[in-house]
Every structure is written in structure tokens, then in C-alpha cells.
UniProtKB/TrEMBL annotation:
Pathway: Amino-acid biosynthesis; L-lysine biosynthesis via DAP pathway; (S)-tetrahydrodipicolinate from L-aspartate: step 4/4. This is 4-hydroxy-tetrahydrodipicolinate reductase. The active site is at H158, K162. It comes from Thermoflavifilum thermophilum. PANTHER family: 4-HYDROXY-TETRAHYDRODIPICOLINATE REDUCTASE 1, CHLOROPLASTIC-RELATED, DIHYDRODIPICOLINATE REDUCTASE. Its main location: cytoplasm. InterPro entries: DapB_C, DapB_N, DHDPR_bac, NAD(P)-bd_dom_sf. (S)-2,3,4,5-tetrahydrodipicolinate binds at H159, G168, T169.
Amino acid sequence: MAIACIYVLDCIFEPFIENHFPVKIALIGYGKMGRAIESMALQRGHEIICRVDLHNRAAWLKPEKLSAADVAIEFTTPESAVDNLLACFNAGVPVVCGTTGWLQRWPEVEKLCREKNQTLVYASNFSLGVNLFFAVNKYLAQLMAAYPQYDVQIREVHHTQKKDAPSGTAITLAEQILQRIERKKQWVNRPAMQPEELAILSERVDPVPGIHEVRYSSAIDEIEIKHTAHSREGFALGAVLAAEWVEGKKGIFSMEDVLGLK
Ligand SMILES: NC(=O)C1=CN([C@@H]2O[C@H](COP(=O)(O)OP(=O)(O)OC[C@H]3O[C@@H](n4cnc5c(N)ncnc54)[C@H](O)[C@@H]3O)[C@@H](O)[C@H]2O)C=CC1
Ligand SMILES: O=C(O)C1=N[C@H](C(=O)O)C[C@H](O)C1
């Protein structure tokens, strides 16, 4: 079993880790993630053509400036992500976006991206480990659908500077569960008060980069799956892999597309 798992992981990661061409990257957002992505991109031989932040965004987010990039990587804030994505579409630059907390505006962004024949890779979590965790979450939810004696809840823990709650990753986990467990009807960001509510409990503790747990509890026992990020390196590597992968593609993609997990 262990050997089979290692073989599967090798097959998933191996094509991405070494075979890539250098790309010119516009970094939009130069905070904790922007800096981690810069370091990963430079290690992998890429060029950063601009580091866009609040102070210089007006100068850089113009088609004539941005179009010098092969790809943009956008990790900013829930309030600014959509404007940044539209700037990339207008410049004709494919964009890898990891910003969370703006998905209420997804339909608008999706429509514009398709109308303008542009390219977006979006993931609530770019780490390879979390994308495998998503696959396990879907499989477990499918099994647990038949066992109503188990209640399910999600817990996420992040650093105190995080602007959104629940985390984008926790929302993805919740949506995967809601699609498979009919007795759960909607997620709530507090303890459940009705059996059909799926609770997502958010905690903010420094300096946690990200913990996600899904727990099924019955009167008799518990089943729990958990992902713990030890640093931001996994998110940064995934975002850079997505930027390498997206070259020459048109449309809207997820990290599952990048990893071939669909
Ligand atoms: N999808 C994923 O794998 C991951 C997603 N995230 C998400 O990425 C986002 C950024 O996270 P951090 O880097 O930790 O935040 P941060 O607060 O350290 O950095 C955000 C940066 O965006 C800049 N910014 C704000 N408004 C801007 C604008 N209008 N134009 C350009 N830059 C602007 C800020 O000045 C700041 O430097 C958050 O939404 C977070 O949830 C974080 C880690 C992994
Ligand atoms: O803000 C963060 O730090 C993180 N945000 C993402 C999310 O909201 O899920 C991904 C990761 O957990 C770190």
C-alpha cells in the first residue's frame, strides 16, 4: 500500500518538478505569499518582471505594462482581487489567482474571462498536499453519506492577519461535502444549530500557516482527516507550477487540472 502511494505521488509530481521553461512573471500582491512565490519562482529559474503592491498598482496594472509578462500570479486581498483579475484579462495575460474571500463575484469574473477569451487558474489552496486532501475528503464524504449516525464538522486554524473567515480551503471542503451528503444543506461559520447545518469553526492563532480538519462523530466513535501546512512553501510551489502549466492555454482551470487529478 505504502509503495503504491509513493508511486502515485511520483506520477503526479514528477512531470511538474523539473520539466519547465523560464517564464516572465508579474507578481500582483507582495505580502507574505507574494514573497514566498518570488523566492520559489527565482529558485525555479523564472524572471519576476514586477512586484505590484498597493503603492505602485496604478502604474503597473495597465495593459501596456502588464503585457510584458507571460503570466501573472495574484495573491492580494478579497477587496482587490477582482480588479486585478480584470486588469490581467484586459492586458491579455493569463493569471493564476490564490486570493480567497471574493467568490461571491465568481459569476462576473467567469463571464468576463470567457467573453474576452482569457485564462484564469483559480484554487482556494495551491498546495499539492491539500489537493490530495480534497480527493480524500470527497471519497470519505461519499462513504459517509450512507451513515446518518455520524455528524460532520470542519475546523480551520490560521494566523491572526488572515482577513477572511472561513478560509477558502474550508469552504471548498464544505462544498465537496454538501455535494455528497444530502442530510447537510448549507455551511455556517459557527457551531451548527440545526442538523442540516455543516459547521465550519474558524480559529486565529499565530503563526499558523494553515490547518484544516474534517471530523465525523457518532456516539460510538470519530473519524478525522487533517492537513497541516508547515510553512507557505507548498502554496508557493503550487502557484508557480500552475504558472508554468498554464502557458498556451485558454479558459478557466483549477489546481485539479494542473495536477491531472480530475
Ligand atoms: N490559494 C492559496 O493556496 C493561498 C491563498 N492565500 C490567500 O492569498 C491572499 C494573500 O495572502 P497573504 O500574502 O498572506 O496576505 P498579505 O496581507 O501578507 O499580502 C497581501 C498583499 O496584497 C497587497 N495588496 C492589497 N491591495 C492590493 C491591490 N489593490 N493591488 C495590489 N496589491 C494589493 C497588500 O499590500 C499586501 O502586500 C489571501 O487572500 C489569502 O487567503 C494565502 C495562502 C495560500
Ligand atoms: O490566508 C492564508 O494564509 C491562507 N489562505 C488560504 C485559504 O483561505 O484557504 C489557503 C491557506 O490555508 C492559507
